[in-house]
Amino acid sequence: xxxxxxxxxxxxxxxxxxxxxxxxxxxxxxxxxxxxxxxxxxxxxxxxxxxxxxxxxxxxxxxxxxxxxxxxxxxxxxxxxxxxxxxxxxxxxxxxxxxxxxxxxxxxxxxxxxxxxxxxxxxxxxxxxxxxxxxxxxxxxxxxxxxxxxxxxxxxxxxxxxxxxxxxxxxxxxxxxxxxxxxxxxxxxxxxxxxxxxxxxxxxxxxxxxxxxxxxxxxxxxxxxxxxxxxxxxxxxxxxxxxxxxxxxxxxxxxxxxxxxxxxxxxxxxxxxxxxxxxxxxxxxxxxxxxxxxxxxxx
Amino acid sequence: xxxxxxxxxxxxxxxxxxxxxxxxxxxxxxxxxxxxxxxxxxxxxxxxxxxxxxxxxxxxxxxxxxxxxxxxxxxxxxxxxxxxxxxxxxxxxxxxxxxxxxxxxxxxxxxxxxxxxxxxxxxxxxxxxxxxxxxxxxxxxxxxxxxxxxxxxxxxxxxxxxxxxxxxxxxxxxxxxxxxxxxxxxxxxxxxxxxxxxxxxxxxxxxxxxxxxxxxxxxxxxxxxxxxxxxxxxxxxxxxxxxxxxxxxxxxxxxxx
Lengths: 299, 257
Description:
A: alpha/beta; six-stranded mixed β-sheet; B: 10 helices; about 70% helix
C-alpha cells in the first residue's frame, strides 16, 4: 500500500488556483520531494495531506486514510514539521520532548531522539535560549518522537547556512534509514537531488514532471556535452568526429546522446594517432537545467 | 473519556503550570497585579467605611473584591492572551497535528487558569487578613472556593471567546484589556458602587459585578443571604453563552492562512 496517494488534487483560494490537478504517490520507506519555486502550490498540497486544508477536488489518501477525516489514529502515525518554528519557549529541550512523547502510544526514547538531532549538550536548556538552528532541530525531534511512519517536512532547510543544511540532510537520511517515509517540499534542486528517491516538480499549481532524480524530465536521455582540448595544430578535419561539434582554437565541444561511444572513439583515436588530449569533461544536464527548462514557461 | 485521556489532562495541566510560572510576563501580570491593587486600595481605604453598606469597614469589601479581580485576571485575561499568543505563534496548529485531543488542550489550559486563580486569590486573602483586617468566616470558605471555580469557568469561557475574536497578536492587549478594565472598574472591584444606582443596575446584568458581589457576600458580616441565585444565573448565562459562541469562532491558526 502506498504511503501517500494524490489524484487530481485541486484547491483554490477565491479566484487563485493554488493547486490544479496534481497527482503523485509516495511509496513506503522512500524520501519524496515536492520541488518547485515559491508559490508553486507545494505548501498547499502538503496542507491538504496534513489535514489542515480542505480540498476542492481530487482523491487523497495518507496511510490509507483520507486526512480530511483524519482523527487521532492517523495523527499518531504522522509527524509534521511546519515552515515556522512553533515550540513552547519556557520548557527545556528534554521537557518539551517528554511532554510530547506522552501523546503517543509507542514513543521513541527521549534520549535517543536528543542524540539523533544533536542536542545532547542542550538537553537541559530552555527552548527560548536555543539558537534558531537548534530550535529547528528540536522542532524536527518533536515531530519524530512519536515514531511516525510518515513525516511531512515543509522546506526543512530554508534559511540554513551550508553546514547546517548538510547536518539536516544527514538527519533526514538517518530517519529514512530508520524506516520513516518522508515527504518534503523544497525549492533547492540540490536538496531534492541529494535526498529524494523520487521528485515531483510543480509550478503554478501544476505537476510538470515526476520521476527519480537521475531520469526526471528525460534527463537521462538528453544530450550530454563532451569537451576536450587538443593541440591547436590539429585540424578539425583530422578529428574522428562527424558533424555537430564546435572547434575553437583546439577546444572541441560535442553534444551527444551516447557519451560512452563518443568517449571510446575519441580516446582510441588519440592513442592511435598519438595526439594528446587535455581537460576531458562529460557534462550531463544537471537537475537544475531540467528544472529551469520545466519551470521556465510558467514563471 | 478514557483513563488515559484523564491522565493526559493531569499531566498537561502540570506542564501548563510549569510554563506559566516560568514566564515572567504571565506570572507578574496575573500574580503581582492583584497584590499591587490590594496594597494600593487596602492602604487608601484603611479606616474608611462604606455608607451604603451600613458603615462596613471598606477593606471588608475591597479585599474580597480584589480576590474576585484575581480570578478575572487569571481566568479571563490570561486565558485570552495565552490563546492569542499560542495561535499566532503556530503552537496551536502544531498541537493540532499531534494525537492530543482538542478538548484536552482546552481543558488543561482552563484547569491551569483555575489553579492560578485559586493560588493568587489565596495569597490576596492571606495578605488581607494579615495587613488589612479582613474578617474571614471559616465555615463559608468551601462556598468561596465553589464560587471562585464557577466564576473562573465563566470568565475562562469569555477569555476563549474574546481571544478567538482578536484578529492578531498586535491587537491582543488592546482588545483584551479594552473589554476588561472598564468593566472591572464599573463592576465595583476597585471602587464600591451604590447598589441602588443606575450604574449598578446595569452592571448587574454583565458578568463581572455579579461575580464580585457573589464573593463579597461570603465575607459580608451583616448577615444577609450568602448566595444570590440571580447573580449566579447571570454569571452562568454569560459563561455558557460565551462557551457556545467560542466553539463557533475558535481558530487553530492565524487569520489569513
